[in-house]
Write a structure and sequence with these properties.
This protein has 385 residues and is α/β, with parallel strands linked by helices. It has helices spanning 16-22, 38-58, 71-85, 101-112, 130-136, 159-168, 188-191, 240-278, 306-315, 335-339, 344-347, 361-381, and strands at 4-5, 65-68, 92-95, 116-119, 141-145, 172-176, 195-199, 210-214, 282-284, 296-301, 318-319, 350-354. It has a seven-stranded mixed β-sheet, with helices on both faces. A three-stranded antiparallel β-sheet has the order 9-10-12. Strands 1-11 form a two-stranded parallel ribbon.
Length: 385
Amino acid sequence: MRKTYLDNNATTPLHPKVLEAMLPFYKELYGNPSSIHHFGREVSGAIADARHKAADLLGCDVSELYFTSGGTEADNLAVIGTAFANSEKGKHVITSPIEHHAVLEACHFLEKQGYEVTYLPVDSKGFVDPDELKKAIRKDTTVVSIMHINNETGVVQDIPALAKIAKESGVYFHTDAVQSAGKVPINLKEFGVDMLSASAHKINGPKGTGLIYIKKGTRIQRLAHGGSHESGMRAGTENVAGMIGMVKALEISCEMMDSELEKYGRYSSKLWDGLNEKLSDIVLNGPADERRLKNTLNISFKGIESEAILLNLDMLGIGVASGSACSSGSTEPSHVMLAMGVKPEIARGSVRISFGKFTTDEDIEYTLEQLPPVIERLRKMSPVA
């Protein structure tokens, strides 16, 4: 059976060159980077080199980058750490209802600590209105967190414009760039944010590694206590191989970015146009233009539920998703779809298809061959179709 992996927003396969870069740090370069002997120094030197490379790729100062255990920790540190460090100013936080659970649950935690959270509405395409942000900012607002590219729809928010509004009001701005760092150009000197989160395994790097950009002067409280690792920002012996692997993955992704974006555009158009030719009653969730990262297609198939689609495609060797991998155990409609005003019965039939570096033309052809018959068969079986 052919294996066709189209769930790259959930995770990506490790790039062979990334594995090659990581292996020495599991074998001969095993020293603790905090140790002063040469076993530790050669490893700490490798971390320093990797951090400089990441800073060059992202356009920031090397002292502004901190490695984490992944995007979730980075999001928590940005939202909770900034809120805690600035509580004397106020206890008001702003976000949107389409954020990843790493941000939403951090906000829910703050609410239990007595903070007030404003959830900005989004329009039918999934965009935050800058005017809504302006109206929501108060004297006691400390931090705004709006994701750059949505993991379920691929919607690209105008982060520089939103960050500018926050800056003009003296409010810190964080963006979850887990789905964008390494996929689209980001120059932090021009981006305007105070904090940015990224993750390695979304760009063919290792799982369990991420990073956070924290602009100089940002008041933020550490969450993990212990040693003085990562310049005192987070305690814990460094995941050296993960750090090296993440930066290598970021380097490869930046080098391939232009060709990959062109490929994603072709695949997105081919798959969407092909499905429209063969099927009726399908809806694209999100914009069709350049305001959506074309590696992501979120499609609702009216009259059937996504779980049935996923299971049938899985039996054919095709891997897709119905939303965020972090909420795959939930039977509720996607919170992103509902926030966009999609009716629950339509939202329940949404499928996310996401391309990656190793997606091929044959993958698209095979999916176009197999998906329409699956939909037609399920609709015949469905009592609501």
